[in-house]
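Task card 7
Instruction: Convert sequence to structure tokens.
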Amino acid sequence: MHILVTGGAGYIGSHVVKQLLENKGDDITILDNLSTGHQSTVDMLKAICSNADNGASLNFIKADLSDFAGIEQIVKDGNFDAVIHFAASIVVPESVENPLKYYMNNTVNTTHLILQCNRYGVGKFIFSSTAAVYGEPKEVPVSEATPTGPINPYGSSKLMSETVIRDAAAANSDFNYVILRYFNVAGADVQNRIGQSFPNATHLIKVAAQTAIGQREKMSIFGEDYDTPDGTCIRDYIHVDDLASAHLSALDYLDSNPESQTPNIFNVGYGHGFSVKEVIDTMKKVSQADFSVEKAPRRAGDPALLISNNNRIKSVLKWQSRYDDLELICKTALDWEKKIAGNKE
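Output:
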């Protein structure tokens, strides 16, 4: 297949591209504006492609989804079989402070991309969504049937995009999709070739790893008064390589179900969670560093508890996890931070 991967130079997108190149032998085109993705990641993916020896190819286009005319030309000329769409703004507190950025980038740009996919015959669309669409769920673990109710513009912008995708598919039987609702993604390539290089990251495990190696003087726990056993937020942390493999499962599913029009929405998580304090304790154990942690007020838009019910993705997409181990997740994140810190010296 010829696959367009938007945001493929970013954290999750690059891990999906890596697995596509190594396992599928497809022709991949990455589209990325490099605002949070990196040229060094693209260079590493090109090296992985050259070593794959399976007929895979990799092309990179630097472009922004807001360039509507340019995006139309790329989709028109590309003759793509599938689009995997990652490119988005993802920081919850920023979405509260600057909601219009999120609706423009995450919803408007996605809608335009879907328009071009429908116009030029792209039949498969895999969308990077989020557990933030559930907001403060009344039932835990959260299933795909759990009512949505986002509590921040980030989650709202993604839910709006989900609606656009579903309506487009309902109107066009040749346009089929899978929506993957991610829980908390962490860790890095187990071979330490690529990882999370997002500037000014807010992800807990990355921040803890940076603090463990002295890149940060200290880190904060944002709220210790939540209705959880230790008072801190609980999240379902999934290793990025397991999340990436879910996208390959989604492609296989769309290949074998070319006329599927049901709501193809799937949670991607492990089905259990860890608190902020448990994650910090695990990073201290893995790093053997007793780094400084301070208390801080709650952040806007943070629900107390988010854990997935992942039965549907396992039964329908036949997805299986390989790295469900918090210590392994923390270790791969730590190894990556050590590597990029060394590269900066």
